[in-house]
Amino acid sequence: MSADETKEQLQNKLNELMSQLMTTEEAAEQWGLSQDHIKRLCTNKLIACKRGKTWLILKDQPNPKQS
Length: 67
Known about the structure:
Blueprint (H helix, E strand, L loop, with lengths): L2 H16 L2 E2 L1 H8 L3 H8 L5 E4 L2 E5 L9
Helix pairs in contact: 2-3
């Protein structure tokens, strides 16, 4: 397998993973909540992880407003 093929496979994997995540801005828009409220929920109510200053939230979870 060439280096280009390996790089392409890794990029495809990364794209697949990223398609399962959303930012606090996207979550706020999708769930009808403020971005600040979403950030507070990331610390204990949502499946999320922080990378630098950015929260990455798993898309496949229910709207916390409805729970």
